[in-house]
Amino acid sequence: MLSSLLDTLVPLDRQPYAHALFALAALGVAAWLANWLTRHCLVRVVAAVLHGLPGDGYEELLGHKVLRRLANVVPALVVYAAAGALPDIQRDVQVVVRNIALAFVAIVLALAVSNFLDAVNARYERKGRHAHERPIKGYVQMAKIVVFAVTAVVAVATLIERSPLLLLSGFGALSAVLLLVFKDSILSLVASVHLTTNDMLRVGDWIEMPALGANGHVIEMVLNTVKVQNWDNTITTVPTYRLMSESFRNWRGMQESGGRRIKRALLIDQSSVRFLEPDEREALRRIALIDDYLERKREELTAHNEHLLAAGRDPVNTRRVTNLGTFRAYVAAYLREHPDVRNDMRLLVRQLEPGPTGLPLEIYCFTATTDLQEYEDVQSDIFDHLLATLPEFGLRLYQQPGGAELSALLGEGPPSRLRAGSADGSQAPQTPACS
Fold first, then answer.
1. Based on CB atoms within 10 Å of each CB, which residue in 65, 146, 299, 321 is the most buried?
2. Do 297 and 384 reside in the same domain of the chain?
3. Domain identity same for 27 and 124
4. Mind listing the pLDDT tens digit for each residue in 381-422?
5. Contact 116, 64 (CB under 8 A)
6. Three-state SS at 401
7. In whole angstroms, what is the distance from residue 411 CA to residue 346 CA?
8. Which residues are in the Mechanosensitive ion channel MscS domain (predicted)?
9. Residue 63 lies in a domain
10. Using CA atoms, how far apart are residues 251 and 349, in angstroms rounded to an integer?
11. Whole-model pTM?
12. Planar angle of CA 426, 432, 433, nearest 5 degrees
């Protein structure tokens, strides 16, 4: 009946083409119908069955649409199976249609495998014990590259009806080009293996790489790049292989130790350093932190000086306590008593080499916290206290003179906004000078 209808509507010399077009249209409708039934019926039934199984291991498969990808294979198989039975279609056309269907199947399977790998990575990130420290996203991306490369070879071999091994043998001449194209990916893969195996870098680590402007926390590690969120919330993308070929600083050790270093110096005016008089030493004994120190020094120096004087030495050779040494002892005792300073880590109060900006008195210790805000608060509180305590020991900080100091040195008074004589700045009446 359909054939007689075509004979009536289409001229006789064009009927073979009409039959072929009609057959192809019917094949397209059959493929669409098979795809619709598979996606809306079979996939939903399988998803419902998976939801009914114990555990939650199938959520990633459904979430990444692995089953929906696989459903696209069905219409391609329908086209492949029915292409040989199409009437009034040349053999060469049937072969081309079947080859295209097989190539499409290969591509769909590759996409399904890619989605499956994404589901595996999502499952690992959700359930893996070390997922945050050792991500596998880079390896997943490398596996995708291999899958798509094999799929490309199979698809091309299917379309041209040649063996995939024949195509692979021809890639030997293109190996240099492929190595050049995928150089960064290969180097990054090797670097990722080294970084993960040696536990050199994890997501969440605070790293510093001045050469590339990176100073912040690692937020993502993939095959070719490592993303670092800097302190100003900008994102620096670092090639993975650069982390192996160049040096970078990882602050994870500081965070795991539980202590963050303070290393800062007070610049002491050297002209304020002097010996303490006996009455000054006694006055400083009211400070509980150095009372024992002063008593111990008094006993030590008394014994030493009596020995020198008994030997007939000049009194100039006797030892005396300095205000700087006493202040240094006070700072060390203060830090040891501070609740936010670690006593089980290195604690030093030392003098550095004097320079044109004064005598540096360096404080080297570790706080009991690694949080940036808490660390800065503790550090500021310590130096606030020390700066306010310096005058008690007769010491001064070195500070380069500013405009006010230079004016005072030259005997010039500070400039005034208002002229003398009236509060509103008007000119006061002039009083004749006395002769």
1. 321
2. yes
3. yes
4. 999 999 999 999 999 999 887 777 677 777 765 554 444 444
5. yes
6. coil
7. 49
8. 184-252
9. yes
10. 24
11. 0.57
12. 115
